[in-house]
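dumping these here so i dont lose them again. two proteins, back to back, each one seq then structure tokens. dont judge the mess
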Amino acid sequence: MGQKKSEFDKVFSAWDILVIAFGAMIGWGWVVSSGTWIDAGGVVGAALAFAIGGVMIFFVGLTYAELTAAMPQCGGEHVFSYKAMGPTGSFICTWAIILGYVGVTCFEACAFPTIITYLWPGFLKGYLYTVAGFDIYASWLIVAILVAFLIMVINIMGAKTAAVLQTVLTCIIGGAGILLIVASVINGNVDNLQGQMFMGETTGTMAKNVLKVAVITPFFFIGFDVIPQAAEEINVPLKKIGKMMILSVVLAVVFYSFVILAVGYVLNPEEIALSQSTTGLVTADAMANAFGTSVMAKVIIVGGMCGIVTSWNSFMIGGSRALYSMAESYMVPKVFAKLHPKHKTPVNALILIGILTMIAPFAGRVMMVWICDAGNFGCCLAYCMVSLSFLILRKKEPDMPRPYRVPAYKFVGTMAVILSGCMVLVYCIPGSGGTLIMQEWMMVGAWSLLGVVFYAVCKVKYKEKFGSLIEIISDEDAASLMPEADDKELDLVIDAAIDRVLSRMTA
């Protein structure tokens, strides 16, 4: 394989890594879905379910942590699966993760103007047509397209610009969530938990309901994996990249769990049911109740709006880098491997995803839910393939320098494969609660067909170059792959915590 010096600028700090990953995982769901989670599993049960889901992602995240530190190259999953499974396995894995990223960006383009309708009831003007029961208005489309264009431009202007946006918005999200949690502690009432701590008449039914919520929680943690896509742009010691990913997952678990507990501590079962049947924004109504004013409900809604943009922004970063890496390997048209001459961003890949995001709102919100579900399936498939790559490379290349080595790797890798594999099966098995419907399978099929076309055309056009992964890591980075001394307090705390958890599980 050839090697060339990295063309990317190293602009991401440790803080940037954290807010990009955390911001990707904390979207709009915590504002609109908390009531649904409580109805299904109970207040304590739903919070416990998110902790269980966090354990699933924890194992997958550990495999990402080791692989990212060992191969800090643009593309993440593309590079990992290439090293372990070769060109075909890499193509499938990367194409699947791109589907996930594009699905999220398209969904967020529809979610953003929808939130504005909650804040400004008179916002919808100029009825155009109806798709799958969803009315499309001119004002709704204009806002969706303008915001999509703006986020595309921000990402083209440079990775650091996107990171600054991510930091500001993530702080707003965190601030809104903290306000709700603190207010619930001060003004909430433990009596509100009566009858809704767990759902079910028997212990077995309660456990089943908790697991029912736990099955869907990993889908709310999708996003930590955008970090490996931009690993070559990260300006921190390699060992820390993986640790910051794990920390972002822990913070997301804590955030979701505490928001659920806060809602249940402020609203009793009747109030939650009323909120579900009227506004549907249970978290916002809980905020209004905790502060005694409806104005504070808008604060939560604004926080949720910021969550949409942070997820949108993160997946633009991840999707464009994944597409760029495939183009660098001659697996998709080479035009997507172009970097902006000034800002050093994958400009053509960003433009493509930006155009798709601007077109998506024309299909309506229901169509976007289908695309998002199909994308989640793609992400879960990629997680499973990365986890397999982790185990394969431990056996295939045991001496490969690994700045961050996962303890008890056989246990971690096996659990990651099993749990991510179960996530894939949830989408496939009828009656599992997450089975894709016909329209979603059609989208998966259409994306797969496009992948087959790219695979066949590029294999014929580029011949022996197809799948010849170009090492775009610089000599300086290659030298830094050796394990480094790292005595920072945060590193020691994270290492000790991970070791304790794994030692208890393996025991």
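---- next one ----
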Amino acid sequence: MFPLLAAGCGIAGALLVLCFQLLLHAIEHVMAGHGGGGLVEIASRLEPWQRALAPIVGGLLAGTVLEQGGRLLRGAAAGDYLEAVRVGDGHLSLRRTLINSLSSLCTVASGGSIGREGAMVALSAQGGSLLARWLPMTLPRRRRLVACGIAAGWAAAYHAPLSAVIFVCEVVWRRLDWRSLPALALAALTASLTVDHLFGLSPLYQPPPLSAPGQLALAGYCLLALGLGAVSPLFLRLMERGRHAFGRLPMRLPSRMALGGAVAGGLAWFWPQMWGNGYSTVSWLLGHQPPWTLVLTLLLCKLAATAATSGSGAVGGIFTPMLFAGAAGGALAGQWLNLALPGWLPGGGAVLVGMAAFLAATARAPWLAVVMLMELTGAYSMLLPVALAAALAARVSRLLGGRALYQDEEDAPGLRRPGRWWRRRR
């Protein structure tokens, strides 16, 4: 019986993810007119004042949805799916999920610098919670079914079913539950097959052909990983400082979120790449080698835009912006190493290894980093340097201390409770 529920959870999760994507694409189509394209492409065609204004309006709308929707959430269950799976009873509030998803849609569609995948995974987790609520089952099975929803949403959003299973085990549960692996795998594979059947499934990123590196290149990738592992705590500290700074402002939530949108929009006035989660810019970095000064500028501005958007209270994840930070950091490190020894590292290889190293360091999840980067890019010739970089970066991050991404329930990449995002950890 439970395998059928896991498969049904996979189908439901994929359909919920696709519904969110279709709504987002419809809004993008309206914004783009007849031009089409992603958020960065749309932003580049707009006038500077228009791409600066859009995140402000989106933040105001998103904050209003959360504030007005809060009146309907009195007595509602938790909205954090990490909490529901780790220590809760597997019950998620449908009202909270829908309100937060609508708020996330307003932020993402208007160019807010935050991940869209967080809301997608949260919607899929809600599907698993509804199935668990409608059928009588034990507490461990209810939690497991919500975990299947998380895996299904991850697989559908990232086109990565294997890393979806590892994400649940290594990040959500932080342990390996052999009894749950078949159900998780079934949910993730069913979600992937559903998306593939409806729209086709392919790696999200298309790097140039990369050959297996030699010993000298491996040494360069290890140096790159050590550097990114050392700076990864700064990324998490910046995100936390952003939440604390906005939380101290004597302003209502819509005004705070509009201010966060103003920071992202002000940067987008000069650099359209500030719009969105950074996916298109990562794809650009994989295939090109822009000047390191431009890469550094985009990286610093993107970090500021993400810290402002997330810290102001926007519902969404920072996972995909984190991949952007790793890609830009890898591109920078690769170019600097090539200054010391010309031709030491190929540009696309440094970007790919940088993404894996930064993900492994911030999430303390080296297995997730390795498998996910292989699924996202299909660059299996880079398996050895990616694995070495992920292990080294995660080790350096642990030695430096500090918390990991998603360590606490407040760090869930999808639905967070308004009012808890900027709560000071004790």
